[in-house]
Amino acid sequence: xANEDKKDFNAMLHDNKDMPKFQTITxxxxxxxxxxxxxxxxxxxxxxxxxxxxPYGKVIxxxxxxxxxxxxxxxxxxxxxxxxxxxxxxxxxxxxxxxNKTPYWRTLKANGELNAKYPEGIKVQKxxxxxxxxxxxxxxxxxxxxxxxDYENSLFDLD
Length: 159
Prior knowledge:
By secondary structure, the protein is of the alpha/beta class. It has helices at residues 9-13, 28-34, 44-51, 62-72, 80-96, 121-131; strands spanning 21-24, 38-41, 60-61, 77-78, 107-108, 136-139, 145-148.
């Protein structure tokens, strides 16, 4: 996202854009990739509500949140692009609030990767996760990425 300082992320958080909704996909490659044709779209506020449930010392991935929404709503999968955007909106909306913060830093990308699109990037997410007892490891030489070591052991179960 760009120009975060000029955007009202809390307004975006509460704009449901006609969601929740379902869509039937017909592209065979996508059906095979996602395991079905019934795609669910969750509104941004739903991501905020789930991300608020993740307790101190625990983490979750965007993929696990997507699986939870699909299961909860009888869909084959939750749409991945809006999921990533909405998780970022939750983070920025929380950053803009002085109270009722969402612990967005506990929501990781696939394989436990930290999210550079969060407020103040990797640095703040790394600091907050380390303060909760997680070890952050660096991978790569040119395209450096950061991950929570053994994140699977700290995954929060939404069910």
